[in-house]
Specification:
This protein is of the alpha/beta class. Helix content is 44%, strand content 21%. It is built from 10 helices and 9 strands.
């Protein structure tokens, strides 16, 4: 088996069919599709069972009680038999039918690489586009911003199973919504990183994850993760200060206002630069 696709879900009945269908429409065929229901109390299991009865690639498992995201993902890693792991969340959709094929081809031809992602289109809960994430592609470019910016979104990535298992998988109960970021950095300590230029995923932002408390905890853990990975990536002090500033903004004015404040700050800087440029041209002709 070349690829194991892992999809953990909890009460995902409203959106999971789109995620499953996008996997089944892939042009690459040498995969198994591991779907784990983490103790849902809606009809998620019934939906998955129906798909599994129609497609032999789908392997369905259910946790009788809710175990949490990292434990469920690690269960998926233990069950997986593929050389590579691909991930998709129940509210995301793969929009490039060649996603798996391109990533497998890349990893097979670049054995020093341990993680490859893609670009993605970030959408709201109604499927409306918010913005397009065009990540840096080369390892050297990625390492310049890895500590300060989001480079890999979870549903875009593919990585070697054996290496992740050797690294202990996802750290359970250690980080709040940042265990994937921690894993990407640990992978990057053992090999090269890359992104493909195509927009392969609709990445959904859930309203429940947009609260200040959630993002405050996430930023706190990201700061800890950055500190633990000092020396492996560029611009450590700049990145640490940038994340601390983000934490301060969210802690004082809240997440909902943070994007608006950031936009105002960037706009203010651009206006100041424009004025300075105009002043220079008119004064020093």
């Amino acid at each position: 088996m070349k690829v194991s696709i892992i999809l953990p879900t909890y009460n995902g009945s409203k959106l999971i069919t789109n995620a499953i269908n996008s996997v089944l429409e892939q042009s690459f065929a040498d995969y198994e599709f591991i779907i784990i229901d983490d103790g849902s109390i809606d009809n998620t299991s019934e939906i998955i069972k129906e798909y599994a009865s129609l497609n032999h690639r789908i392997r369905f498992y259910r946790n009788e009680t809710n175990q949490g995201f990292e434990k469920t993902l690690n269960k998926g890693l233990r069950l997986a038999t593929g050389k590579y792991i691909a991930r998709i969340d129940d509210d995301d959709v793969w929009i490039d039918q060649n996603k798996l094929a391109l990533q497998v081809e890349f990893l097979e031809s670049h054995p020093r690489h341990v993680l490859v992602g893609t670009g993605c289109i970030i959408v709201d809960e109604h499927g409306h586009e918010i913005h397009r994430h065009s990540p840096p592609e080369s390892d050297s470019q990625i390492r310049k911003i890895m500590l300060s910016s989001t480079v890999f979104y979870h549903s875009t990535v593919m990585f070697p199973r054996d290496l992740v298992v050797q690294l202990g998988g996802y750290r359970e109960g250690k980080y709040h919504a940042a265990s994937d970021y921690d894993l990407w950095l640990r992978l990057g300590n053992h090999g090269l990183l890359a992104n493909l230029p195509n927009y392969a995923v609709f990445y959904s932002l859930r309203p429940g994850n947009m609260c200040s408390q959630h993002n405050l905890l996430q930023l706190r853990d990201i700061i800890i993760i950055i500190y633990n990975n000092r020396g492996y990536y560029n611009y450590f002090y700049y990145s640490l200060l940038r994340r601390c500033f983000q934490y301060l903004v969210v802690a004082t004015i809240g997440y909902s206002q943070y994007p608006k404040l950031r936009k105002k700050i960037i706009s203010g800087i651009n206006n100041s630069l424009d004025k300075l440029n105009h002043f220079t041209k008119t004064t020093f002709k």
